[in-house]
Write a structure and sequence with these properties.
This protein is mainly α and 271 residues long. It has 15 helices and no strands.
């Protein structure tokens, strides 16, 4: 669920009716103002964006939509010593904005973020490849000669392998490096940075390092939301569900044992 200025359709009509507006199905500035007022009155981040969190609280009895909880009701203190304090401090805003509405979702999310970032440590893609690493990781882009020319030159490497795709300009623009992977689940490519930019106040395209320094968790939640992972998380706390989430995040099951371990750890603390 994601409704914002510019959205339209039956869900917008239902939202407008709930807010006492004319239900024309067009999410414009007037609807946005009313959404912000409703969010503020219900202790949610008043950003005018209706994700699973706002929708779930507005329509708590609907089907499989989880009943929203305030981020302040999560037992975040229990996570202290298990994940960095800096990450814990990011959870309330991230949860409110991207529909992390119950401990199950949060545990799945944190387990994946923690593994992908090496324990919440890596927020920038490591592109410091030697020639052998380039040939093994990016065989499509390098041969023995070019690998030797590019090795240990991260800016050149990213500009080449990410140039001309994911919304990036050609290698010469260096967009591939500017919009390289950042955040706990690597946000990569100008198209993704442009999409994420709509959810924060700062100019992400002009200051892409903010994804690493200020929004490493929120950008990861954007990835979960974009890829409809919350619905997968809601299926339960089983190994099968963790595996399904992992496949969406990783493309395979690399590190599955570690992800399962941390999910079980975080879920036991949060529920």
């Amino acid at each position: 669920m994601l409704l914002k200025n510019g959205s339209n359709g039956d869900d917008v009509k239902k939202l407008q009716a709930k807010l006492g507006l004319v239900a024309d199905g067009i999410f414009g500035p007037g609807t946005e103002i009313k959404v912000k007022e409703w969010q503020a009155a219900n202790n949610l981040t008043a950003d005018g964006i209706v994700g699973d969190g706002s929708w779930g609280k507005m329509f708590p009895s609907e089907g499989n939509v989880p009943i929203a909880v305030s981020a302040s009701s999560f037992k975040l203190a229990a996570l202290k010593g298990h994940i960095p304090d800096s990450v814990i401090s990011m959870i309330p805003d991230t949860a409110a904005k991207f529909g992390i509405t119950n401990p199950l979702r949060l545990a799945h999310f944190l387990a994946q973020c923690g593994h992908e970032s090496g324990g919440f440590k890596a927020v920038n893609e490591n592109l410091n490849y030697g020639a052998k690493g380039l040939l093994g990781t990016f065989p499509k882009y390098f041969n023995a000669t070019t690998a030797a020319q590019y090795e240990r030159k991260p800016e050149m490497i990213a500009s080449k392998v990410y140039g001309g795709r994911m919304g990036n300009g050609p290698e010469s623009t260096k967009d591939g490096y500017k919009f390289r992977g950042r955040g706990y689940i690597q946000l990569t490519g100008k198209d993704n940075y442009t999409a994420f930019d709509k959810f924060v106040d700062e100019d992400i395209l002009g200051n892409p390092d903010l994804v690493a320094t200020k929004y490493p968790l929120m950008s990861a939640a954007w990835f979960f939301d974009k890829n409809k992972l919350w619905a997968v998380c809601d299926k339960g706390a089983t190994t099968e569900v963790i595996t399904a989430v992992t496949k969406r995040v990783n493309g395979g099951v690399i590190g599955l044992v570690d992800r399962i371990k941390h999910f079980n750890e975080y879920y036991a603390l949060l529920k």
